[in-house]
Amino acid sequence: MKIPKLLQAVLVLAFVYFGFIVVFDYILDAVIPSSLLAMYMFFVAAGVFMVFTYDEEGTRELVAPVKAMVEDPSKRLWRNVVFVILPLAVGGGTYMKMLPNFEAPLELRTIHPAPPSTAKIYGKRVNFLKLENPYRKIEKEDPEAFRELVNEGAAVYIENCQYCHGDKLDGNGPYAAGLNPTPLNFQDVGTIAQLQESYLFWRITTGGPGLPKEAAPWISSMPVWQDFLKEDEVWKVILFLYDYTGHRPRSWEHE
Amino acid sequence: MITGMKKPCLSDIRFLKTKVFLALLALAVIFGAITFPGFDQAGVMAAEQGAADQEVAADAAATATYAPAPKLTAADYPSIAGINSRVVVWIFAQLHLWFAAFVLAVPIFVFIIEVIGMKTRDKRYDDMAYEFIKVSITGYSLTAILGGGLAFSLILFYPHLFTYLSTIFSESMFYYALLFFAESAVLYIYYYGWHWLQGGFKKWVHLSLGLTLNAVGTTLMLLANAWLTFMMSPAGVDAAGVFSGDAWAAIHNFLWNPINIHRFVANIAYGGSIVGAYAAFKFLTANTPQLRAHYDWMGYNANFIAICALLPLPFAGYYLAAEIYAYSQQMGITLMGGIFAWLFIIQAVLIGTLFLSANYYLWCGMGRSDGAGRYTKYIKYIAIVLVAAFLVWFTPHTLVLTNEELKALGGPHHKILGPLGIMPAKNTAVNIMILFTALSFMFYRRANKVATVSWVNAGNAIQVALFTAGIANILLLGIYHGYFTNTVYKVAASIPQVLTTLIVIVGSITLDSFIYKGATEVGPLKWGRIPERAQYALFLLAVSFTWLMGLMGYIRSGIRQHWHVVDIMRDASPDAFTPTLGYAANVVSVAAILFMAMVMFVFWIAQVSGQKTLPTGYWKE
Question: How many domains does chain A have?
Answer without folding.
Answer: 2
